[in-house]
Amino acid sequence: MMAGIHEADLHAYADGQLAGARRAAVEAYLAQHPDAAAQVAAWRRQAEALHRALDPVLNEPVPLAALPPALHGDQGRKSGRDGRRDGARPWPRWTMALAATCASVALLAVGGTLGWLAHDRLGGSTLVLAPGERFAREALATHAVYAPEMRHPVEVAATEEAHLVAWLSRRLGTALQVPDLRAQGFHLIGGRLGVAEGGPSAILMYEADDGTRLSLQLRRMAQGTPDTGFRVERMTGEGARRRAPGRDPMMAFYWIDRDLGFALAGPLERARLLTLAQVVYQQYQGG
Asked: At a CB cut-off of 8 Å and minimum separation 6, what does 249 contact?
């Protein structure tokens, strides 16, 4: 990176925590480094997606059952500033101290469970996931974020396919190719750089004549990750509940081949999505 600009600066900029000269310096750096600018944009989109998923939860009241009995007596009755209930003595000091302690513990508990809340919103239900499963769930979440975009679903359009392939191949450190799905009714509209488990991923977006979109996400897996056959991951939880009744469920077929992970995600019925995944696999084998 440019002298004096570090990854922590980029994170702070993405979070809106920089001002003045430092902000100007980071903006100058990003203007000269489009890859870094794309990464910052991706961080911001991910943060916005998390806010959309979690802000409603954070605004919910703490369930009464989660509070100790000492804090139940005030429920449904007015309290004075000193904790005095109508027609009752003030709370003893030890009770007020207990309330403060319990509130602190509750805050810690909320912080510790935010990850699981997000996990549920994106369809999580298990404690430990295999690398391929984690990747597939990330691919589903990524598709849910970018596929609805009308103006900016991709960073590089299909008209610049050669540049797109060269850029993503360089970032992933492996030679990529763009599968041709036109015979199956889907044409490439472009691609973008993504993030999967802290590393770069390539996202290719396809569209049918009726507007249905698919995304193919690829990432380098850890060396030695076992190859897999085709496996399916469905979107559940809040993401699935928000889909209109009667629409095909959002799912992804994923597989790992020679340390490269593939996940094809979209709102298609299972057999058709599997056929498309097989076409992608065959074209990569032929390449």
From this structure: 234, 235, 240, 243, 267
Other residues' Cβ atoms within 10 Å of the Cβ of residue 42 = 21
pTM attached to this predicted model: 0.55
Q: Is residue 281 pLDDT above 90, yes or no? A: yes
Domains and CATH numbers, the chain: 7-58 (no CATH), 64-120 (no CATH), 130-286 (3.30.200.100)
With b for 16 or more beta-carbon neighbours within 10 A and e for fewer, the 162-171 pattern comes to eebbebbeeb
Cβ atoms 186, 193 nearer than 8 A = no
Q: Is 15 helix (H, G, I), strand (E, B) or coil?
A: coil
Torsions phi, psi of 128, nearest 5? -125, 130
| pLDDT over threshold 80, residue 268 | yes
DSSP state of 85: B
Write the single-letter amino acid at 96.
M
Which tokens go with 109? 């508990």
- Say what percent of the chain tops pLDDT 70: 64
